[in-house]
Amino acid sequence: xxxxxxxxxxxxxxxxxxxLLVLVLGVVSLGGVECRKAKKKIPETFEYTxxxxxxxxxxxxxxxxxxxxxxxxxxAFRDAISHLSQYEADGGAQLFVPPGQWLTGSFNLTSHFxxxxxxxxxxxxxxxxxxxxxxxxxxxxxxxxxxxxxxxxSLIFGTNLTDVVVTGENGTIDGQGALWWQQFHKKKLxxxxxxxxxxxxxxxxxxxxxxxxxxPSWNVHPVYSSNILIQGITILAPVTSPNTDGIxxxxxxxxxxxxxxxxxxxxxxxxKSGWDEYGISYGMPTKQLIIRRLTCISPYSxxxxxxxxxSGGIEDVRAEDVTAINTESGVRIKTGVGRGGYxxxxxxxxxxxxxxxxVFWMTGNYxxxxxxxxxxxxxxxxxxxxxxxxxxxxxxxxxxxEGISGDPFTGICISNATIGLAKKAKKVPWTCTNIAxxxxxxxxKPCGSLADQGPEKVGMCAFPTExxxxxxxxxxxxxxxxx
Length: 483
Hints:
By secondary structure, this protein is mostly beta strands. It contains five helices and 32 strands.
């Protein structure tokens, strides 16, 4: 048809004028052949903020990607990222995912790289288990979480990377987890379920402005990494889905999680650092963690959990402006004999809690061991736990605080906390065993092992005022232009 239209342009000027008039009207038909005025694709510019901007850009369609929700794009993503990795030392590269449903298996990220999802782009995780490679357990776990041995690689995976951004205009990553949940409940899994995104042994990572749906298991899992920024993400899964934790910083340093909305079947944020003897041996704590402006719904778990895998240690966690609705507990510490490690210097302020089972929950009898080789003499140290400025309503029980016999949890501080009990609340609002600490301005009256310091000490529980290094990370304005 193009050659026919071109031949017309070689006629006399009169014919050119006639054809021009017809084309202005929109369409011409001659002998069954149509010539339409070509529509120019109007370029679009997408602006976003990131820790780094890139010198090179491409679209997944440049590598054969098809966003019809049926065609596998696993090869397209792998080819695209492999090709774009050549620009690591030349300003980096960004891969644009346009509107559409992009079915894909697992793919690996590269350094100095941005994956950007349009607001109408959906990454659909493949339902073909053969597209999910099996990798070894994490060394600080030594064991799969669902089964002994290996685990399926995450949908988006990376290791030994630097300067990586996964972002968008609230584009969607859908794990299509129902298949995996069914296999888990039927005990038919050969290996541990995959996560939606996992980044290991890496530095300078940003995950922002995305929606994560229906993960097979955990959603976002940075591990053995540092300088991590997680902002503006939404995580959604059925509240009965198994182990669909929202964000799990694991043996990480200098991490900030801000402005997140999570509905899940497990802890909204679960802070971890390895499991039993494997975590003790690996010895890599999670520290310098900021959590701000979290909204959580999880009827069977916590808004923020510390543990249960905390054998490498957890310290200097700062959480503020947390809203939890219909969530089992506000902040929960989970540990037990054989865990070893420590949870210390934890600071929480500004919690608004609605319809809770417990506001405060500390558990020293949490089981779930990796194997039978854990050391029964490896006792955890829990100390320096600070809670202040908390309002809760429709609560079944204010607190359940259970340390370990011979290994009490100490240095607990709770101040300015008003807890409104539900109509059918427990008769005894506090239970405390093997714990020690102080309180001020707490209603209802706490147990005796949390000594009341009087109303004048209502601001006594510590919360650091100095910033951490992650607060000083420079954020740049970046753009991607189509066409």
